[in-house]
Amino acid sequence: MMSNPFENPDGIYVVLINEEGQYSLWPDFLDIPSGWENVYGADNREKCLDYIKSHWHNQMPNSLRVSESIGSRA
């Protein structure tokens, strides 16, 4: 039985980001999906997760942050 490649503690990963500013831990051997770009790695799982923790401070999607800031100025 094949294990989940997204949860392999010994796997090599990259960190992806999309236009909404959302991050994803992605197995290095898989193609990067459309709309996402590599911002870190390839590295081990722990270092990639550390990167995400140190860079993703606001999990609200960019589009909601923009609309929220417009609403607060009204």
TrEMBL record:
<dbReference type="InterPro" id="IPR037407">
    <property type="entry name" value="MLP_fam"/>
</dbReference>
<dbReference type="Pfam" id="PF03621">
    <property type="entry name" value="MbtH"/>
</dbReference>
<protein>
    <submittedName>
        <fullName>MbtH protein</fullName>
    </submittedName>
</protein>
<feature type="domain" description="MbtH-like">
    <location>
        <begin position="4"/>
        <end position="54"/>
    </location>
</feature>
<dbReference type="InterPro" id="IPR038020">
    <property type="entry name" value="MbtH-like_sf"/>
</dbReference>
<dbReference type="GO" id="GO:0005829">
    <property type="term" value="C:cytosol"/>
</dbReference>
<dbReference type="GO" id="GO:0019290">
    <property type="term" value="P:siderophore biosynthetic process"/>
</dbReference>
<dbReference type="InterPro" id="IPR005153">
    <property type="entry name" value="MbtH-like_dom"/>
</dbReference>
